[in-house]
Amino acid sequence: MSTEDDIDLVFKALANQVRRSICDELRKRPLTTGQLASCFPEIDRTTVIMHLRVLEKAGLVVPVRKGRERFNYLDAMPIQALHERWIGPHAERAASGLLQLKTELEGEAEVAVEEQ
Amino acid sequence: MSTEDDIDLVFKALANQVRRSICDELRKRPLTTGQLASCFPEIDRTTVIMHLRVLEKAGLVVPVRKGRERFNYLDAMPIQALHERWIGPHAERAASGLLQLKTELEGEAEVAVEEQ
């Protein structure tokens, strides 16, 4: 999960409300596909399986076979990677950028008040 | 930035390599649209502006007018919100889920070795 094409898959997978709801369910605990389908009674099972495949291809869901059952696990590592890209180690720099903006805007506001 | 429709916009905006590169540039420092366009000499200015509008609609880029210039700032709050949804306060639970899986798989591996 490193090339830009892989990252495209993550964002395309998550740009869908049902797939985000599937991630919400799997974050609570791993589920078999049947258990997951029963969380979405308004959606037919085939559609749930289709959404799961999209999430799997993006590396967001990992299927794990346990005995005769196959559990779907959420793998949040791709989301962690995005956080690190735009927030993580650079949070301080971003915060200081916003602080700088605030200071500048306050300076402009003072000038505006003085001009009144 | 709270409804699921708003979140759709964030993911659709970020499901494009050029728009992610724009976020990378703006994370370093705010830029005018002209400065930003010069970071992407291989893309025409109209296309850069089109990408900026998509990022703005998603709340990822905020334009700030300073005197005669208009600077584009990265606003990473929508990305922070995603992180909190799937990782943040639940990181411990997710980590313990993975640990549980690891323990179970190791248990199965031991059974497999004993059966040989």
Account of the 3D structure:
The structure is a homodimer of 116-residue chains. Chain A is α+β, with helices and mostly antiparallel strands and 116 residues long. Chain A folds into 2 domains: 3-75, Orthogonal Bundle (Arc Repressor Mutant, subunit A), CATH 1.10.10; 76-116. Chain A contains 6 helices and 3 strands. The first copy, chain A, has helices at 4-14, 17-28, 33-39, 45-57, 77-86, 91-115; strands at 31-32, 61-66, 69-74. In chain A, strands 1-3-2 form a 3-stranded antiparallel sheet. In chain A, helix 1 runs antiparallel to helix 4 (45-57) and helix 3 (33-39) packs across helix 4 (45-57). Chain A starts with a helix and ends with a helix. At the A-B interface, helix 1, helix 2, helix 5 and helix 6 of A face helix 1, helix 2, helix 5 and helix 6 of B.
Outline the low-pLDDT stretches of chain A. Answer: none
The helix content of chain A is 55-70%
User: How many strands, which pairing sense, and closed or not: the largest β-sheet of chain A?
Assistant: 3 strands, antiparallel
CATH class of the largest domain in chain A: Mainly Alpha
Q: Helix-strand pattern of chain A, N to C?
A: HHEHHEEHH
With helices defined by DSSP (H or I, 4 residues minimum), what is the helix count of chain A? 6
* Radius of gyration from the alpha-carbon trace of chain A, in angstroms: 22 Å
Give the beta-strand count of chain A.
3
Taking all residues together, what is the mean pLDDT of chain A? 84
Please name the fourth-level CATH homologous superfamily of the largest domain in chain A: Winged helix-like DNA-binding domain superfamily/Winged helix DNA-binding domain
Counting structural domains of chain A, the number is 2
As a percent range, the share of strand residues of chain A is 5-15%
Order of adjacent strands in the largest pleated sheet of chain A: 1-3-2
Q: What kind of assembly state do the chains in view correspond to?
A: homodimer
CATH topology of the largest domain in chain A: Arc Repressor Mutant, subunit A
Structural class, from secondary structure content of chain A?
alpha+beta
- Largest interface in this structure: A-B, 37 and 37 residues
Principal-axis shape of chain A: elongated
Determine the N-to-C terminus distance of chain A: 56 Å
In CATH terms, what is the architecture of the largest domain in chain A? Orthogonal Bundle
